[in-house]
UniProtKB/TrEMBL annotation:
Its main location: cytoplasm. CDD domains: RNase_PH_RRP42 (cd11367). The keyword Signal does not apply. One of its GO terms (cellular component) is nucleolus. Residues 56-121 form the Exoribonuclease phosphorolytic domain. InterPro entries: ExoRNase_PH_dom2, ExoRNase_PH_dom2_sf, Exosome_comp_Rrp42_subfam, PNPase/RNase_PH_dom_sf, Ribosomal_Su5_D2-typ_SF. It holds the Pfam family RNase_PH_C. It comes from Antrostomus carolinensis. It is found in: Cytoplasm; Nucleus, Nucleolus. The keyword rRNA processing applies. GO terms for biological process: exonucleolytic trimming to generate mature 3'-end of 5.8S rRNA from tricistronic rRNA transcript (SSU-rRNA, 5.8S rRNA, LSU-rRNA); nuclear mRNA surveillance; nuclear polyadenylation-dependent rRNA catabolic process; rRNA catabolic process; TRAMP-dependent tRNA surveillance pathway; U1 snRNA 3'-end processing; U4 snRNA 3'-end processing; U5 snRNA 3'-end processing. This is Ribosomal RNA-processing protein 42. Coiled coil: none annotated.
Amino acid sequence: LLQCGGNLFDATSIAVKAALFNTRIPKVHVLEDEEGSKEIELSDDPYDCIRLNVDDVPCIVTLSKIGYRHVVDATLQEEACSLASLLISVTSKGALTSMKKMGKGSLDPESIFEMMETGKRVGKSLHIALQKVLDEEESLGTSRQKVGFLG
C-alpha cells in the first residue's frame, strides 16, 4: 500500500467496504423479569446476527490529469507527469458523494466534467467487481482457508 503512489484512498475505500460487508452484529435481546430488572442476552449462535447494508458505501476513484487527458489509477511514472488529480467517491449506483482536487495544478470545468463521468463509469465497474469477489468469498462459508491470527 505505501509503495503504490497516490492511490492509497482508492485501496482504503475498497478495504473499508469489504470490512463493512463482512461485519456481523450479534443480535441482542433484552429480557425483563417479574421484578422489572432488565438483563441483556447475547445469542450464542454466531450466525444469529445482523448484516450491514453496504449498497451506498462509496468507493474512491483517483483520476490524474496528464496534458489534455486523464488517467485512472496512475502509476508512479504517470503521477510524476500529473500536476492535478481528482479523487471521486462513487456509490454502486453511480452517484457522486464527494470530490477532492489534489496537486498544485489547475483543472478547467470541461476536464472536471469529463473526469467525473469517467469516475462514475469506473466506480460502478469497481463496485460490480468488488461485490462479485465478496459474494464468491461469502459462498465459501466455513470451508475457506483461514490465514493470519484466524488460522
